[in-house]
Amino acid sequence: MKSFLSLFIIFLLYSTGNIQAQQQYKIAGKTYSLHTEVEGPLTLLWNSIEGEYQYFVQKDNVIVALKNTKKEGNYQEEYKETLQHLTDDAIVSTAKVKFTLASLQAFCVEYNTKRDPSFNSNEKSIGLKLRLGVFAGVTNSIYTENPTNAIQPLAGVDLELIDNVKLKRHAMVVRFKQVFESSDYSYSASQLSLNYRFKFIKTSKFDLYVNCKFVSFTHSKKEVTYLTTDQPAPQVLITETQSGSDFNTPVTLGIGADYKIGNGFITFNYNDFVGLSVESNDEFPIAFTLGYKFNL
Question: Which residues share a beta bridge with 152?
Fold first, then answer.
């Protein structure tokens, strides 16, 4: 338990220390809150605005928006012409520049290095951000006895760490989940877990991922009924509440999806339907949650 809490604390300190600062810029009459990704003769600014990643470059105190509009299914790549015009005082090619943060960053670093040999890129290998989410749903708790296969309500909170630069398809999640007892099954559980997610489909609007829970601490409580076996006294039916805690490495797999709405995401998860190192009660898994998360 102590080691898990230590890992959790380190996770929070490391991630919050790397969240990028933002500054206010007035561009074409509008005020934007932007991150500075590269600072030099050609400065790269960016943020997620109204559900879309937007990029700007600044040269000689003039800030220009980079555009990549879509017409009849094809991207127009106007940003390449903009970059070529702004960097005509150095030999740099825009032919292979993609409309992504990493590619635009590399282009700006290349240009700045040619314009100023003393330029220090301080190129970031990571760009960590936090997302906080809440969720609710139902489960039939297949990794417990659950003799009647009862459906139980659940709710919880996710704290997700993502990297928008080098590891865009990967995420780490600390999850707290509370399973509530139902009228048919007097079992409840509080669980804190560490999860890894791989996003095998990732777009600006939609992510589809596999979730692997590999460490968990669970405190559970259940009601047990049994007959006494003392002889020669008559048998008596006794009901009592039992509770306990467990720290383990369950290695369970689930699948989830995020859909971007405004500045946050609608989330749907089918949780823990495969257990690689934990036994189930052989019932068909029902573990669905729906929620919402937003960037911190």
Answer: 139
Tokens at 157, concatenated: 């909170």
**Using an 8 Å Cβ cutoff, are 128 and 15 in contact?**
yes
pLDDT digits (tens, 9 = 90+) for 2-43: 344 344 444 444 444 444 457 888 888 888 888 888 889 999
Cβ neighbors of 239 (< 8 A, separation 6 or more) are: 223, 224, 225
Q: Quick: pLDDT tens for 230-289.
A: 666 666 666 677 889 999 999 999 999 999 998 899 999 999 999 988 999 999 999 999
CA dist., res. 43 & res. 104, Å (int): 10
What's the Cα-to-Cα distance from 271 to each of 143, 184, 242, 286, rounded to whole Å?
12, 22, 26, 8
Which residues, in sequence order, are CB contacts of 31 under 8 Å at separation 6+? Answer: 24, 25
Q: How far apart are alpha carbons 125 and 46 in whole angstroms?
A: 16
DSSP secondary structure letters along 110-143: HHHHHH-TT------S--EEEEEEEEEEEE--TT
